[in-house]
Model the fold of this input.
Amino acid sequence: MIVHVALSIPVTKTFSYSVPEKWEPFIKRFLRVRVPFKNKTLVGFISDMDDGVDTNLKEIYEIVDIFPLMNDKLILLCEWASHYYITPIGIVLKYAIPASLHIEKYLTIKALEGRVLALDNVPLKKAYTAIGKDTVFQHYKEGLIELCDAFTNKPFSPLAEKSKSMEKPERILYIGDIESRLEYYTDLISIHLNKGGNVLMLLPDYYITGRYFYRMLFKRFHNNVLWYGATTKGRQRMETYFKARNEGGFLILGNISCTFLPVLNNSLIVVDRHEEDEYRNEEGFKFNAGLLVMKRAEIEHIPVVFGSVAPSMEIFKFVQDGNINIIEKAWLKNKKYSEIITEKNISSYGTLPEELIKIINTAIEKKEIVAIFTPRKDYSSYIQCLDCKRPFLCPVCQGIMSYQKHKNLLVCPACSKNLEYKEMCMNCGSNLIRFSQIGAEYFEEKMKNILKNIHIVRITGETIKEDLENLKNVSHETPAIIIGTQTLSKLYGLHANKLILIGWEELLRIAGYRAEEKMFQVFTNLLDALSPEEIYIVMERKKGVNTTYFLNLKTFYLEELKKRRAAEFPPYLRIFLIEVEKKGEQAGIKIINKIKEIIEKEGLTGYVTGPLMQKKKGYRWRIILKGNKELFYKSLLQIYNIPEVRIEADPLYI
DNA sequence: GAAATAGAACAT
DNA sequence: TGTTCTATTTCA
Done:
């Protein structure tokens, strides 16, 4: 017997192996197998098999699991994702079933018949070494034993398919503030839990947000709330895994790692703030969890709810096309908006306008909490020598360096190189240095200088521990100033009386084609999390934006969609970023020409930027392809299989 | 993706 | 002719 195995390597073809006789009876599609590859061992998935014999092929070492860990529906989801994101199925499957899942570790044998009584209560791994894995498999197949996990004590068996209900499951975009969202979620969730189903709920991946949701939902569902997020590790992770797989009536809170989680009787999927970038997986297999769980809900024939105050353009387009129903609760009422227009750019010179200081002082007198938003976390993101006029550039990649004062470090945001700041110009040695593009750290220092004995904290989401520690003493008993980046919009449960945005309009430059969308989302989510009564927007006269544009949700989205359509950008056309990195220029051009040839043959539109100087020696090229994927799927596959080429579907920043 | 191999460029 | 860096191939 020959099996064709999908490996987690960036080639789309599969690799064939022959199967030793003792494993033959257990071969099944999508089983994990351990195989020799080059001079190491890899775990792959059986994508197909046939009865032929080929003595030239290497043999598989063993079958890893006793049955495929995912059911047909989850596999269908993986296959869809593989196609949609131009990623080999082996890589997708490996993401869905990561090596960090230690399933066997928690399984124990239960003997069902007298003749295997010796195996009763023996840990699975022990039995493997004692009588051989194939013998254990044989016993299982013959129904002599069961495998029970340590958490539910229920038999481990292939994930059952849910019986299909007749009614068409709903897709809902719920627009409302955090309190109304929680109320809506809770009602819906309890309906499904009461029927014995499980519910998956995806949250933005930030500890403080997660804790808030857990607290609120625990009030209603108590110990039926489970965790499956980034901070859930080891034993706790496996506990959720087995409970979700074997039992019903649980609400599973988590992050993107829930996308492919096997769930028994999955009845509802909720995604809160689906527009957040954290739903995009950036390592290896790049996908958007919000979109994938929408597909999952479709495949599993269950309802899905997207709750937010600032939906993504993609989701809003689904609404417009009639593919998602919208429920909109009025909010943003009773807010006082003011603009503070400055003649000079604060970010460049760091002088705060008098008006702003007055506002802060009155807030302190009234014992209020003031939140200050800035788009940057560091002290300064642009350091320039006033003598030679040159900016501080990264010695490795020539990127513009940022300065972190508390560590006295110059860091490169592009390649994360960092070095100590020597208080002089890197080029000419002058000590006339100007810090501009200032961020949270700078404002913190400035505030501490102006306001003595006032509680001033900085929240940037860099280290959760620090953020938690900083927030510990903030209460409405004493005035406080909280300075932070977008992370401020995750601080649910903390009420700031005043919100001041400094440099918000600079997101226009930072966020690429999604700039306006991002601005809307940052602004609206800040209001949602902090629920301030008064909002102050500090802008430079020259670069000011029309604030009212961002205050009306409907008109904003319709207008943005119009612009996107005219510019042929997502959600109307998809974007594929093709990147080539080479040390030598000629070698790079050769590959680029190959890609161009494929593109031209299919008559596709695309354009090349670069070569961009990268690192000490080396070049990088970028080709951007825009269009409907189905039209050029074959070409993209061809391009994918060229070595040294990476394709990123739906890149966040271009 | 990464090791093995082939090829180019440079120094001795 | 060896040494080192870069490009290409191949994995079953």
About this structure: Residues 28 and 59 of chain A are 16 Å apart (CA to CA). Residues 178-194 of chain A form the longest helix (17 residues).
